[in-house]
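Key idea: predict the complex, not the pieces.
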Amino acid sequence: MSSFAGRMKEYPTISLDRFDRENLHARAYFLSHCHKDHMKGLKGPLLKRKLQFSRTVRLYCSFVTKELLLNNPKYAFWEEYIVALELESPTQISLVDEASGEKEEVVVTLLPAGHCPGSVMFLFEGSKGNVLYTGDFRFAAGDASRIELLHSGSRVKDIQSVYLDSTFYDPRFYQIPTREVCLKGILELVKNWISQSSHHVVWLNCKAAYGYEYLFTNLGDEFNTQIHVNSLSMFKKMPEILSYVTTDRRTQIHACRHPKDDEYFQGNRLPCGCTAADGTPLRIISIKPSTMWFGERTKKTNVIIKTGASSFRACFSFHSSYSEIKDFLSYLQPVNIYPSVIPIGRTLAEVTQLLKLMCRKQSDHSRLIYKPLGVLKRCRVERPTYGNTHKPDRCSCCTCLQVTLRLNDMSLVSVLEKTQSPEGTAPPVSMEESLSVTVTDTQAVAHNYMDCTESNDEEEEEEEEHEGQGDAKPAKEENCHAPKWEDFFTTEMLTDSQNSQSHSCCSVTSPSRMTGSQTPELFSDEEPPGNDENFSLTLSASLSNHSSQNMDSCLPDTLILAPEQREQGNVRTSMTSQKEVNDGLILQPELDEVSDSQASSDFNIPCTPESKVPQPDELLQLYRKLASGEELPI
DNA sequence: GCGATCAGTT
DNA sequence: CACAACTGATCGC
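Result:
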């Protein structure tokens, strides 16, 4: 359940998913999805009154969320104040202080969050940096890399802060089977039951919340049927869903509800009251979608668990697992991460500490082996407008382009940034693989997150048949210390590695965090002063043997840095994009040893009319002067 | 009487 | 098995 107070440090004049207290004074409201715990205060009379006296305050959300919200008469008054935004279409919004007229511009982009119909993340881009508010989300591993608007050209945008759905950000919830795997299990169970006779029916015991719709559509497709629900009104403008639901009770799959549905079920009645068709009693099973989680190395899992003679629980999650969140964060590498949910049994301080492992590390000088020198003083380049399909590699916090004499070194910069990726994520066990065995002792598996796992590297070793398998095992265990929660809080603290980080692409330092006004109550970090960053060397060392899936997938790119390879594909790509963007601006790339053919293509800048081509001896003199540090007449 | 809040339940 | 919402008790306006 979200405990987010509604405001972000960077843009405190907007409120998200909270509409009470201080949020009443916001200049703009954002609703990520239509679940009640994200709508606190949304039907309050105070807010209603504020809207009536305001000319500029609006509520921004997706079209689907707007539809779902207005379907509830309690929120109908919002109609004229809602602005629905298209997904993945950056939109500029003016944040106006109506008393003073003061104005701030921010660009917001809605990104599909995979939590329930209409659910989105909000990406804000403005003077205080790029900030991602995730709302509630379910991303599978690798999903972040597929979202174009989290990227700028070929690079991930520089994210100052992520306000994170941390519902399962706890190693206990290491893996949650993927949607596909869960769905497959449910389809199988339903198939086995309803195929027996037309009196065999299934009751999907879903909670009163949006988010199960994809289950309905998949079941509907698979069995060519509709699912019985209490009401269709909320879906009336959503043909994708509407065609799969019905209020006709004569169907074998029900997701209807009743306050006493469990009692009904005990009495062999469906929540809608159905108990027999044509005089023959129904044979009902209930399937309750519930979250199931498994340890890091657990291979024996089952997405369906029988809980009674005709009751089942089926794995289902609205939220990303620990490993999915880690994958997401290690891809984005934000400077700050703020949890919006505290997992049960944990404290804010604990979660905050654990999240710091996933924050971008402060520039670690020992890693800055090479810094390209010789940057030319150059003109400022206009940022291309949104929608430009040929974006240059560019630092997203400023307008500078990464124009250096050696463009191919940009690859190195990128890799250096990637090597700062938070470590410690062990690759989760493939669920597809693991589901082949049936075990339901979830208590046992839930604790297996402490176990070791094979990293990809180790798997490669096995493939190469280095040693006998018996020998390989102890080595593995030594290298393999999956983090347990306790590890993070019982060890010595290190110094802060989180504060401002220089962008390795330019000399501009990213905007410092903690800028702008802060309301202590809203933004309390519960951090003792001077104790910002706190992880033990022991932990770091043990974690360094793990690399996330994401990291692993990046590593092959690192190899491209071999000089002979860099001069091939990479340079060409960089050059092309630079040319396109700079188009006539000062740009004099100089490669180490330029061949004639390269010279003709890479130095495509006309000479000054009065200039002449320097002779070799003149050049030699010039180089000597340069080498001795003499000033040159320019 | 209405709404907010909390604890308990599903 | 920790989703999110509903129910009922209590309190304040």
